[in-house]
Amino acid sequence: MIAPNTSASVQSLTLQIDGKDVSCRSGQTILDVARENAIDIPTLCFLDGLSLWGGCRLCMVELAGSPRLFAACATQCAEGMQVVTDSPRLLAYRKTIVEMLLCERNHVCAVCVSNGHCELQSLAQKLGVTHVHLPYRYPKLEVDSSHDRFRLDHNRCILCTRCVRVCDEIEGAHTKDVKGRGIKSFIIHDLDQPWGEAESCTTCGKCVHVCPTGALTDKGTAVAEMAKRRQFLPYLTQMRETHS
Amino acid sequence: MTVATLPKAPTEDKRWRIVEAAMRRQGFDSHALIESLHSVQQAFGFIDTHAMAYVAKALRVPLAKVYGVVTFYHFFTLKPQGKHNCIVCLGTACYIKGSGDLLRAVEEKYHIKEGETTADGELSLLVARCIGACGLAPATVVDGEVFGKPTHEMLMKRIQSKLEGTEAK
Amino acid sequence: MTPEELQSIALKKHEENGKFKHCLHVCVGSGCCSSQADQVLKNLTDGVKKGGVDKDVRVIGVGCMGLCANGPMVSVDDNQPLYQHIKPTDAPTILNALDKAPPDEMVCDTDQPFFKRQMQVVRENSGRVDPEDISDCIAHGAYASLAKALTTMSPGDVIQEVTKSGLRGRGGAGYPTGLKWSTVAKASGPDGRGQKYVVCNGDEGDPGAFMDRSVMEGDPHRVLEGMCIAGYAVGASKGIVYVRAEYPLAVKRLNKAINQAVRNEILGRNILGTNFNFDLEIRLGAGAFVCGEETALIASIEGNRGTPRPRPPYPANSGLFDCPTLINNVETFANIPPIIARGSSWFANIGTEKSKGTKIFALTGKVKNTGLIEVPMGITLREIIYDIGGGIPDGKAFKAVQTGGPSGGCLTEKELDIPVDYESLAKAGSIMGSGGMIVMDETSNMVDVARFFMEFCMSESCGKCIPCRVGTCQMHALLDKIYNRKATPGDLALLRELCDMVKATSLCGLGQTAPNPVLSTLKHFENEYLERIQTSGATNAHGPSAHNGHEVNA
Predict the structure, then answer these.
(1) Which chain A residue's Cα is nearest to B77?
(2) How many whole angstroms separate alpha carbon C347 and alpha carbon C335?
(3) Mean pLDDT of chain C
(4) C122 near C374, Cβ under 8 Å?
(5) Where in chain C is CATH 3.40.50.11540?
(6) pTM of the predicted model, to two decimals?
(7) pLDDT of B1 strictly over 50
(8) Domain A111-232, what architecture?
(9) Rounded mean pLDDT of B127-132?
(10) Is the pLDDT of residue C537 over 70?
(11) Where would a tag sit more exposed on chain B, N or C end, judged by fewer CB atoms within 10 A?
(12) A88-104 and C489-505 helices cross at what angle (nearest 10)?
């Protein structure tokens, strides 16, 4: 985690994003500044109020003078930086990333409770992913419906770990984590128990509402009914900051 | 720092004292999770969910985190191993010299896949990423003894003699 | 202990060793031990006792002598002679031949290029000292450099000396060591406590590489000394050696070495009578290649899943427990004592303009002399493979040499005359890497080799970032399809596309370099790919091929 900038004198910086001059405070990331200036950089694992993850790689941008790409969520602005967020190369990579997610597990929007409210779906639409040119893997995955109120469908999970982070960092329960590694990674509860048997779960439901897809949902919702309410997170973070 | 109230060990088994001692040496520090898990694996040969719950409680680490760590590292195993084991090294040098074929031969003969144990609990077949005996490629380890450059027949014979306990040693 | 006491230990041990008429060195590295070297050692020790010559003949177990293929090795009085392929039953023969002409059939020719073309700097004491006896190591110069640094040099002097030597990280990337040290020296902790750490990366995970293991097993005190000097230079009082749990012998020897050093007040408080304090402990890895990446290694030491995090901040500024952390590889630390002892200009004279010193390689695969070699930078691959390695066995033809493991690439006949240094290897499409060097002959299939490395990366991917998690899996499936002659030209195009994408977008070095073995085999051996690609029909038998695409269900 990046330590917050505690230096007393916050510097003002100017930089260019997609040819547009913008200014910001030192310590801000490229993503922060882009969003303040209504420049759209797509993200999936990033969520304001949770710790930095840097795993989805959708927010990769180009910096003038470097052949490497940089994750906008994890890169602090510097004076005179020239950022490109929408080159054809970046757009192609983003499309491939979304395709990789679509082929990794089983995303069938037509029968998904989150249809129309899904960040992965809207991202695919925005990026123009009409076809997946990677082979689908069609893994056989389980749905955990053991909890009274919530459901975890591994078929829809993109392993962004927002649920793991909100459970640990905001709720403080740390019921969720990731087991295994690589392509065999899965979200678990406690000792890989059915969610309903995980004693540490407080049934707060925060994980459901930060989940970008239909992986975590309220029980009893029908197709396209599962809209997520995410307003609580900035509110909670803000309240904690002012009271600490 | 307050002295941790130590949770009760899952069973009366004396080996839990080894685990407890290992955790005590590290001051029951939550950062010593992996060291503690090593001590469980060394004492018992595997780490089951009872052991994970015990370590989690003693170090005050969330259960899900312990499970996540155990399953991340391939050195840790959740199931008891067979009485005997055969490790086939799949490092580059060994692979180039045909360890893949050796592995398949053992798999076929004992009807197990890599990482599995025979139904009678006698033999576990494991693979290693590199045991660092590249000079002896293809390298295998049978019951802890490195066995370098074996032919298929030699390896089968070695395993069989271990299984039957007919080895002279 | 004071530096004077250190010297008197050395003198005393020298005197003791000098009383023996003969000294037998038995290699008890992991390689030789697997051919019963431990039993050879026992039989020799017993034989000496039984023969009543234990006052005249000293028998010790030592670290790797290099020529692992001919193990177990026994060296009499510094290779006068060197015996090879020794069985436990050969012990009496060796003892009987001590003052006579040695039996020719057991003697290993030390005039052969395998020995003559090498240059031992890091491994100078491996095979000579008893790694389990600190006084024997001290008698061979261990901790003299530490004494010199602590008593005659300032931390700034030490860093300057390391910088001037031109030493670069031996873990693979070749980052200038002096620059890293000065960054950590300048960094301040998160809360002004000034706590800093020195971490030794001994998580040697490259399949086909065992250089670091042999250094840790054969001369553990050299690694500890290097870390100690680093601690002094950067202002760290704590050090951690992160070792693979798969190296039990290295762990045992390091543990023993640390305990002996503590007992002799070479580690701990007021080291060698100065006000410098340095504690060392061992942390075990648990089987995750990705933990060789420094941020993942830190996560692992902290007791977490070994997943990397975005950099910056770099560990030099914010590493272990958010403190400035110096992470170097085993071989890098092992280079420090000779640099301090003999001076930076001596070291800078070895090697090429930009790559100084020597490098240890694990020379394996289809080559006659497999084992560990230490060579000056700038030597050519041809010299390594044909002179030191003795060429390709069984009358087969050379095809390629792979360096850098799963992050590296293959080089062919055309590139055999390039000098071995960081830049030349990179320019030729491979990397120096940590030192794995695998020779392949005409029977090796390069698509299979690429598939092997991709399978490795897939199973070692931590799963945090999507390009590596899904990309390695997709690329592996494509390589498998190509190898099994079920792929179309579209599949090959897709493979190339994914290589580019995974390289550019992955979070850490594992993903960023995972495509390298594919790219380099594609560059040099494209024909082997093409000959397995189906150019017409038949694809539908195995389901729709990739490039036809699938409707998105959106």
Answers:
(1) A180
(2) 9
(3) 92
(4) yes
(5) 134-348
(6) 0.92
(7) no
(8) 2-Layer Sandwich (3.30)
(9) 79
(10) no
(11) C
(12) 110
